[in-house]
Amino acid sequence: MIISRKIFHMLKNKEIKPRNDLERAAFYFYLISTSFGSSMGQFAMSKQRAPKRLCRDFSLHTKRLKNASIENKSFEYILKEYDYNEALFYLDPPYVGTENYYKNTGGFGLKEHELLCNLLKNIKGKFMLSYNDCELIRELYKDFNFKELKVRYSLNNNVLKRKESKELLIMNF
After folding, report:
1. Is the pTM of this model over 0.85?
2. For residue range 135-158, what is the model confidence (pLDDT) as tens digits?
3. Cβ atoms within 10 A of the Cβ of 54, count?
4. Which helix (H) or strand (E) element contains residue 168?
5. How confident is the model at residue 65 (pLDDT cuts 50, 70, 90)?
6. CA-to-CA distance for 63 and 38, rounded, in angstroms?
7. How far is CA 1 from CA 29, 30, 47, 101, 118, in A?
């Protein structure tokens, strides 16, 4: 797949319309893969490294996700529809304080954070949930297992200037 500022802007400005859901997903993948911080805001291409090989990425993802189900549905629907004793859910909801980063989602506030927690308390399967480390999340999920993770977000090209943050991996096993 060619990496191009012109294609990026044409997709972003909806000058090229997807003909179906598969094309819509491919356009979305292109935009997040070629934008700064996967924000779809500005085109970003490294000046030091070779361009990304998006086709290779598709091939890697296809192999890894061979037996996975991918849906574009609410977490309520997914947890209800796919829950059974052997299920494993990995959830990565909007982090507390970053909810406004997600455009056109209908919002994800305190009510949704609490609803997700209540649903997870009652599933048959297992779950792994990633969140930012904050008081609200520690209180909501206090009955579950926590693993603290130190992460460095890779938006800054200078490795030494990357900010270290703490995240939580929360599990019911």
Report:
1. no
2. 999 999 999 999 999 887 665 555
3. 16
4. strand 164-171
5. confident
6. 23
7. 11, 9, 19, 27, 42
Tokens read off for 67: 């037996």
Q: Give the number of domains in the chain.
A: 2
Strand-pair partners of 90:
128
Separation CA 138–CA 134 (nearest Å)? 6
Point out the domain boundary residue: 16, 42, 66: 66
Please tell me the distance from the alpha carbon of residue 82 to that of residue 127, in angstroms, as a whole number. 12
Distance CA 169, CA 52 (A): 29
Of residues 95, 85, 68, the one with CA closest to residue 170 = 95
Distance, in Å, from the CA atom of 133 to the CA atom of 118, rounded to the nearest integer, reads 19
Which of 49, 66, 83 is where one domain is finished? Answer: 66
Amino acid symbol at 63: K
Which is nearest to 108 in space by CA: 94, 97, 90, 119?
94
Three-class HEC string of 117-152: HHHHCCCCCEEEEEEECCHHHHHHCCCCEEEEEEEE
Say if residue 96 is in the same domain as residue 143: yes
